[in-house]
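To whoever is on call:

I kicked off a structure prediction for a single chain this morning and the downstream step that reads the tokens threw a length-mismatch warning. I double-checked the sequence; it's 203 residues and nothing unusual in it as far as I can see. Pasting both halves so you can look.
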Amino acid sequence: TKLNLILNGLRLSNHMRNMPEQSNKRLELRVIASGCRDSFSKLIAQEEYQNLKSVVYLIHITDKNHSPMLLWDVMNKKDLFLTHTEIWELIIQVWINTENNNWGLNQEFWGNMLTRFPPIDSMRGDIPKEFTCYRGGYKGGFSFTLDKEKAIWFRDRWGANPEHNLFERKTNRDDVLFYSDSREEKEVVIFPHKAKWDLVEIG
């Protein structure tokens, strides 16, 4: 009947309208399941996902071990859609939500990401022009703390290790990429090429 034809037409219209949304949900599920970079790239190529809130959501829903690679894909997008400030907000968000950023190949990878864009002074918080910071662990990581006791905790975190020591560094504000206390660690992240210099072993 004519009514059935109209109803069928409406159903087809609704189905066609929902297809992009359903397709995006499938892409999101692939990102969740495996950190699929291809699916992630297809999503951030769409205008509705080209904002900080959506990118943070997509990175947040996947396993945190995949987050740095997704961040890298955003940062190196030819038609970058985030502002300079938003990029740094995203970098800091991913940094504080991942572990072992200073170890092995992760260190080289993060070294490239942290120097991809010039730092923003406001991301350095209220740290003074000159200050002392500490690092507990092995020499060469980018991550330091203003809290000596926290550095001692990191040194002893995995038990006795002759390669893990307590270091002190006299630092200038300009040597800092960003400051974060989101994990209550009073963390300062130093330029990678400067992080291993001027360290004094104190314990």
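Update from on-call: the warning came from a stale cache, not from the record. Cleared it. Sanity check on the structure: Residues 103 and 141 are 8 Å apart (CA to CA).
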